Amino acid sequence: MTVTMNAADSVQAVKEELIKHLGGEYTIPDLDDVAKYSQAKCAQLADELKDKGLITTTIASFVQMSLLEKREALMKILKDLVGPPVDDDPILEFASQIEKVNTRAEIEEMVKEFDEVRHFGQFQLGGAIAVAHELFNKPNSEFEGYKNFGEYIVTVLGIGYHKAMRLEGIYRKLRYLGVPWSAFGNIGWTKVLALVDVVTIDNVKDLVEKAKVMNLHALKDYVEAEKAKIGAGQNPKTLFTQSVKLHADQHQLWLDSIEKAKEETGSESKGAAVEAIFQHTWAVGLRSRTGNRRCSISAST
Questions:
Q1: What is the mean pLDDT of the chain?
Q2: Where would you tag: which of 15, 149, 151, 232 has the fewest CB atoms within 10 A of its CB?
Q3: What is the span of the domain harbouring residue 47?
């Protein structure tokens, strides 16, 4: 029997048929693997389920779904078999999927699928950009021919560099904020994104309470006021002057890193460049250890 349905109805229909005809002898694929399936693998899994008698209805619209929709449809089906997660966290759930991607082709395919109009789509797109950034910086990467990541983002992905860095920043901020999704108290993605620039692990509870009683316009005005306070020095950061003694090769590496970071961020500020270097290092971990040479550092306020 062939039934034509939209994507949402297709998911439900396949889910019902699978649960109805599930046999105990079938080994359920790992969800993390399904999240990375290609078009061919998605089709293979759907056919496999049908061949095993787990699905008796052919869903005509499945072939018309995008790759992301197919993955989501199959994952929803399989999730119903293994049971729902104890704490459904869309941030960590998506991060666990996107951070396992390790090829340029797959990243570029996924970028096409994310709907930037949807606010969760902005987070997803930021995650794809973050992973692409990591892949770009790997030795012997698949990105030869581009002088920097900014050139690749603009020419291949068609995204403005500053916009891409903003989206990557949103992803990294929420990914490493250190609070569960439940801490946002169902205020919705629109308001969560409005809070990104000022939210911390310490103030998230207070900000969420404000977000619950404010409309979006009022919340954005509040966030801008908070940012202005910080900019005006009402909550200033302590500034340090750092003096570092380096060997000649270390000094050249330092200069090259600063210039690259300035080029990547689009800022001429050395302070902003240093911050970008540290943020990148903290996010991905140190890839190599330094040698035995020592450098002398002194600091004064």
A1: 74
A2: 232
A3: 2-82
Q: Which residues contact 138 (CB under 8 A, 6 or more apart)?
A: none
Among residues 61, 72, 7, the alpha carbon closest in space to that of 37 is found at: 72
Q: How far apart are CA 126 and CA 171, in angstroms?
A: 5
Nearest-angstrom CA–CA distance, 34 and 48: 13
59 DSSP 8-state letter: E
Are 68 and 103 members of one domain? no
Of 203, 231, 259, which one is at a domain's C-terminal end?
231
Residue type at 93?
A: E
Do 73 and 104 lie in one domain? The reply is no
Residues 95 and 220 reside in one and the same domain = yes
Q: State whether 149 and 281 are in the same domain.
A: no
CB atoms within 10 A of CB 35: 19
Crossing angle (nearest 10°) for helices 270-284 and 248-265: 90
Cα separation, 58 vs 18, in Å, equals 12
- Residue 236 in any domain: the answer is no
31 touches 79 (CB < 8 A): yes
pLDDT digits (tens, 9 = 90+) for 38-81: 888 888 888 877 776 555 555 556 777 888 878 877 777 666 55
Asked whether the whole model's pTM tops 0.70, one would answer no
Could you tell me if residue 269 is inside a domain? yes
SS3 65: coil
